[in-house]
Structures are given as C-alpha cells and as structure tokens.
Amino acid sequence: MSKLADPLAPFIERLRESPIFGPLGEEGLAFLEKRAKPTNYQAGATVFGEGEPSQGLYWLQSGTLKAVKYSTAGREQILHLITAGQTFNEVGSFTTLPNPASVVALIPSQVWHIPGDAIRQLIQQDAMFAQLIIDVLSERLRHSVTLVEDLSLRPVINRLARLILDEAVGETLFRPDWYTQNELAARLGTVTDVIQRSLRKLEADNLIVVERQQILIVNRAELEKLAA
C-alpha cells in the first residue's frame, strides 16, 4: 500500500455528496480534512485484519473491497461488499476492541481512515450526524441477521437465485474480473463445486444463461419463486 499523491480535493468534494458526511457542513468537513488520512491499496491487499485493534471509521473513495471472515482452514465467508462512497468499520468509532473481520481490496482502491476519536467528537457535536451513524449501524445489523438466516435455513441454489436478482441491473448481472466463482462461493457460504452445480442447474432449467462476464436472467418469474 502507498500514500495517495494529492487526493484531498476529490475527497472533500465527494464527502459533500455523502448522505452521512454532507450534512456536517463546511466546518465539519474542514475538521475531517485535518484528521482523515488516505491510503492506496492494490488488489489483494488487506486494509485491516481480523483481531487487530479497531482504529476508527473508513471511507472508500474508489474501488471495491470485501469484508470477510476466515476459518482456521482458510475458507472464506464474505460478509458484504464495500463499494465507492460507502463507509465501513463504523463500530470502530466506538470501541478499540479487535476487529471482528478483515477487509481486503478486490481491485485497486483508495481508502480514507478517520480516527475513532474524531468521529466521536463529531457525534457529540452534531445530533444529526450521530443519528446517521446509528442508521448505518442498524442497517449493518439487519444485513448480518439476514445473512445468518440465509446460511442457516436456505439451500445454496435459493441463495444464489436471490443474489442474482438483487444484484442484476435489468436482466443482467455483470461480473467484473474479480467476480469469480470462488468469490461467489465465499459470499454464499459454500464451495466452488456447489456453485458450479447450482449455476448449471439454473441454466439447465432455462432460468439463466451464464457467460464469462455476465449472467443473464431468462425467466425472472421462476427465479423469483426459487429465491422466495
């Protein structure tokens, strides 16, 4: 990883458009300008590791990251994907307990770190900002409960159908280079062989067409029944 050359201007401009940071106004943004530090991560680099002390809040300016848990055998469970403009590790604003998961770059990514004490100061000064942070934490909790429910109660092929529907743009789920079957398996809590069989089954049933860079939805109604 390396420090960014001079990314301050785009950082501030993007924060003005952020639903979390924009309401802080110029005074709050100027405060963040003094405290936030940028770092550039290459694909595969770790932003922070599970078990390390939490250091505060992070904001992704560009790129794509994954929040992931690793088993002792090295198997992955992706908790969620982080895309440009999103914050992550909000819990690090309130505690220095060890990180519960790792965050890894899937493609070259620009990340800003905001120390936890700076976020806590803003929370104490601005009730609206505090509420926005609480809203994000609540959404993270809801996502985690849904993930546990899916992994515990729903077959892989049903989870796969739901993921395709949720992430498709129109009738197409676009797959960048990092979106491999290994990554897909890690998101759905299974292994690559099971994903391959599930994709073949959906394709054999004429619900989807699998191509190298995309998955096409052929029969949305039947896919929705399976996802439900």
The amount of helix comes to 40-55%
Ends distance: 42 Å
Identify the strand order in the major beta sheet: 1-8-3-6
Question: CATH topology of the largest domain, which one?
Answer: Jelly Rolls
Q: What is the domain tally?
A: 2
Helix/strand-derived class?
alpha+beta
Tell me the major beta sheet: 4 strands, antiparallel
Choose one word for the global shape.
elongated
> How many whole angstroms does the radius of gyration measure?
19 Å
Could you say what the CATH architecture of the largest domain is? Answer: Sandwich
Average of pLDDT: 88
Order of helices and strands: HHEEEEEEEEHHHEHHEEH
Secondary structure blueprint with pairings:
Layout (H helix, E strand, L loop, with lengths): L7 H10 L7 H11 L1 E5 L4 E3 L7 E7 L1 E7 L5 E8 L3 E2 L13 E4 L3 E7 H10 L1 H27 L2 H12 L4 E3 L6 H8 L3 H13 L3 E3 L3 E4 L2 H8 L1
Antiparallel strand pairs: 1-8, 2-7, 3-6, 3-8, 4-5, 4-7, 9-11, 10-11
Helix pairs in contact: 1-2, 3-4, 5-7, 5-8, 6-7
